[in-house]
Amino acid sequence: MAPSSSEVQVVESFLVAPREGTPTKRLWLSPLDLDCVQNGHTPTVYFYRHDAAADFFDLARLKASMAKALVPFYPLAGRLGVDKDGRIEICCNGEGALFVVARSDELAVDDFAHVKTSSELKRLFVPCVEPPSIMMAIQVTFLKCGGVALGTALHHAAIDGLSAFHFFQAWSAFSRDGANAAVDLPFHDRTLLRARSPPVVDPAAAAVFCSKLDFSGSPEPTATEVLTVTRDQVASLKRICGGVSAFAALSALVWKCACAARRLPPDAQTRVSFPANVRRSTRPPLPDRYFGNAFINLAATAAAREVAAEDIASMAGRIRGAIGRMDDEVVRSAIDCIELADVDGRPPSGILPETELRVISWLGMPLYDADFGWGKPSAFTRAEWVRGGYVYLMNDGPPVVDGGSGDVLVVVSMEAANMKVFEQLLSAKLWPPKSFLVAPSEATPTKGLWLSPLDLDCVQNGHTPTVYFYRQRPGNPAADFFDLARLKAAMAKALVPFYPLAGHLGVDNNGRIEICCNGEGALFVVARSDELAVDDFNDVEPSSSELKRLFVPRVEPPSMVMAIQVTFLNCGGVALGTALHHAAIDGLSAFHFFQTWSALSRDGDGAAVELPFHDRTLLRPRSPPVVDPDAFSVFCPKLDFANSTETAATQVFTVSRDQVASLKRLCGGASAFAALSALVWQCACAARRLPPDAQVRVSFPANVRRSTSPPLPERYFGNAFINLAATAAARELAAEALASVAARIRGAIRRLDDEVVRTAIDHIELVDVDGRPPSGILPETELRVISWLNMPLYDADFGWGRPSAFTLAEWVRGGYVYLMNDGPPVVDGGSGDVLVVVKRLFVPPVEPPSIVMAIQVTFLNCGGVALGTALHHAAIDGLSAFHFFQTWSALSRSRDGDGAAVELPFHDRTLVRPRSPPVVDPDALSVFCPKLDFSGSTEPTATEVFTITRDQVASLKRLCGGVSAFAALSALVWQCACAARRLPPDAQARVSFPANVRRSTSPPLPDRYFGNAFINLAATAAARELAGEDLASVAGRIRGAMERMDDVVVRSVIDYIELADVDGRPPSGILPETELRVISWLGMPLYDADFWWGKPSAFSRAEWVRGGYVYLMSDGPPVADGGSGDVLVVVSMEAANMKAFEQLLYAKL
């Protein structure tokens, strides 16, 4: 809506004076008042809907009640003036406040339901204050809908927000209640905030005070957005931040997101400033109804790198710390500082620099108390342009007790170029969509629960993520399927006996970790997906970290013991994600809780519940601790992780019920665990081709509940396992029968007695517990088998049937194996099959490594085949490799080979021989990327696969002026990666890529040149250029590099490489954040390898993607062969930046 000047017509204007005599005097203004002179009049607008009353907003009643209110609030009827020394003061002369009446026959209240804070509101509904010395002006505008807009303008030199709302409460009460109005009288003596004589500024106090804001005259355009943070999100934020105020939590969130969106240099000093009410901080405190300005500006500072690295709780701590330091000395020092400074009454110009943020909070102020007798306002808003760098926090509607939502509006103004990223970052951190704490339904013990050494040994494991999937009953869907009220009530009831799960991790007086049983509650998250269904996860790997991202709640703060997420899927089913801290319980205890919770939901008061046993001192160490060497020999005290970058994949094998039974017989009646563990151990050692003398070890957690003397109670609740191990030389494992290998495992288990358990406990007590999660993978000599066999995985029936599937929702570390039942027990209709989740390679190991090509054909249990290939890159590039596979498959497909159409390769590589002598053209070299510099960074990386649809690719190409799909996609990824990484503006960013030279040499190479025929090109730009340019310009940089590739460039590159030392060792590390490498397989015949039995259903790289690398490849066969035409973008980058990258990518698509 773009209102014209005729939309509102002024009907009349007049002055409203106090109805009785008031003091005629000059009101001295404190330094805190004088510091606000430059702010002028604060414009606001209230909107009121018509309540059908005949006297709705009766002007006579409004004027009479204002005249009455101005008697105690007489300064608002005065004028700004100066005393004989030139100091600004209020001349209390009873002249009156300006009252304007207006009408609009075009505008309605609903026209402004979603309006942003803007100067347009001020133009329409706030009176023009002439002369500007008037302290208060009011405009009542009658709208065409029958409603009213009440615009206000009060001079900030006279009062702050609290005092302004005090006046509106009084005026509206006089209008509404007449003689019965209860009004708190204002206190006018501002000398309580007089400067000291002489003024003294305490340096320590000044450190927390923000004496001045520096505005820049930047012409950069700004944008203003109003973002809504829900009541649940505010509560979640406050919890994450350790129970700080909503102001501190929201300010910390905005500060962190703004710094990230602005991509400040790491050493840049950033500052968030905010006005703080001093009424309770002076000594003595100011009177309750002090009328005037009673705030000072505080600030918290941090380097940009600190803001990026710290969590929100730490940022909120900085803000809370500044507030906590505000005492009488800080207030007096601030007053004295302002008194000593020259007060400039001119309003500031410009915007705040990117290192500054100013947060002004109206949270908790009585914005909606202005009921003049016709109901509370339906909306309230500032009516002014928000200066760049300013943020306003205000309640979105009346308080919750009056029927309000409790949501908060965050009004943000910042550089337009950064606003989109800011919104994305804010939305990403405002998690979850709906969450709350479920506390026990009855009082529970409040205490610190001592943790045994076996508990402490699990601290590093953090929260164990799992997911249950539930289907609606076919043909008979339950109307109350996964009713949240029922689930919450049942959980609250279950948490009474299982009260440690409602607490959080803490430390005792000696620094030992314990569970603080405080009844605070477990986190319960409700989510919804309109895209995902239970069937989408039929074939998902049980170890997929994608499941964790989708369905397992993020636990904030991480000290919380339990978190649950119920996700309603588009098929009508549910995914129930769980995260329970391993320091609190092991698997048996976790499933005990889920059996109880589900039974209470399913059976209500008739549920049969077995109570947990909480006394963990049964596993207390001996005094003094004693480690028996013989007992220690079977215990696995520690796993050594290696930082290997070897590529591995997670594979799930199904071992049928009959095969398990056969294995057990073969192993002399060993348990399924021992038999399967022996099988996996023996096969893994053989596959790894370990040296014969290598000492190999298989370790596994073993339940000690029946091994202590006396045994632990049946329902011991906590961690009650120790890690056992069996060892052997590789040659022994290779030579032994499977029964002998199983016997080694059984032998370790049989040795588990009270002495072994006590020795393990004492050993753990003596070592320092490292709470950090381990990094890396297990070396090839190690295997760790974790069994969930026969655990009640499928007992969690909440009243709507057992889960259709259950899975671990986490990446499986290299060297780990999980054993779990594939479905419910046989007695409940399950198959009795076992899933073996293990790291396994589809691609054959190449020994000796001088072999040029190796192929592995793996026959899968579904009847399909995985064809793994390994071709040495020194021999051929991708085009040549696919030429070979086209030929091989064609010869196989034709059966006798005679009918195959084969294009012969060209083998003479002297066509790309260096010149003699080699000549490197400096100009040609400028487009060449001679070397990639890898960093030894230990920063964790993440790999994600994004699908870009055929239509999106076409749209991108059009947007980029008709460039190739490669140039358009590379530009998109480059620009998003630089933004997500928040590079310093002057940082030189580079994207490099291999370019096919077959058509660029003179003469061109033969069509089927067989070998490597590419050079590495690069495009560069400063980070600020990438941020400022549109996508077409970025694509133009890439296309420009490609267009410069001619014979001179190719020959210069060949000569350059000839002159350089070739290092045959594979690089280590990842690319630095300024580098991106894009490798394109677009247009390559990935799906031509039809050996007679059809084209491949899928094709993929089978290797870890190095940090900083991007692969582009077609998602399926060409469109002509029935493919989608979509493109897969495989991106590996710093894990901390991946979420922002993903958001930016999707925002631009």
UniProtKB/TrEMBL annotation:
One of its GO terms (molecular function) is acyltransferase activity, transferring groups other than amino-acyl groups. It comes from the Eukaryota. Gene3D superfamilies: Chloramphenicol acetyltransferase-like domain. The keyword Glycosyltransferase does not apply. It holds the Pfam family Transferase. InterPro entries: CAT-like_dom_sf, Plant_Fungal_Acyltransferase. Keywords: Acyltransferase, Transferase. Belongs to the plant acyltransferase family. PANTHER family: OS08G0543400 PROTEIN, TRICHOTHECENE 3-O-ACETYLTRANSFERASE. This is Uncharacterized protein.
